[in-house]
Structure formats: C-alpha cells, structure tokens
Design a protein that fits this description.
Radius of gyration: 16 Å
Shape: extended
Low-confidence stretches: none
Helix content: 40-55%
Strand order of the largest sheet: 1-2
Number of helices: 4
Length: 69
C-alpha cells in the first residue's frame, strides 16, 4: 500500500493518522451502510433515477439515463 500512496502523492503520515480518527471511521460506516441499502454490490456502481448501473462499461448508459437528450 505504501507504493500506491507514494504514487498518488499522498502524505503517508497524514493518511495513516487520519484513518484512526473517529470522524473518518464514521464516514466509512455511513457510506458502507448507504451502499448496502441501495443494493450496491460492486464498483463502480452508478445510481441514476433509482436505477443501478454496475461496471465501467455501463457508464454511458448511466449518463444517458441522467440526460436522455
């Protein structure tokens, strides 16, 4: 993971310190709960007009659903 953090130019000290904070943990719990309630089962998942589009190859369909014109 350290290589990925370096490759993304993320301050590793700040990153590892921030993931210990309760507010960060609470946000992860909320996002996970939201995804579960929306029946998200993989990534990337796009929800447009209460329709689920799963997978990068479905992005075009999600965009069409968002703006059919």
């Amino acid at each position: 993971m350290s290589k990925l953090i370096r490759d993304l130019s993320i301050d590793s000290d700040e990153f590892f310190q921030s993931i210990k904070e309760q507010s960060v943990k609470d946000k992860l719990i909320k996002l996970t709960t939201d995804a579960f309630e929306k029946e998200v089962f993989g990534t990337p998942t796009f929800i447009v007009n209460n329709k689920i589009f799963w997978g990068q190859d479905r992005l075009e369909y999600a965009l069409e659903e968002f703006d059919p014109n």
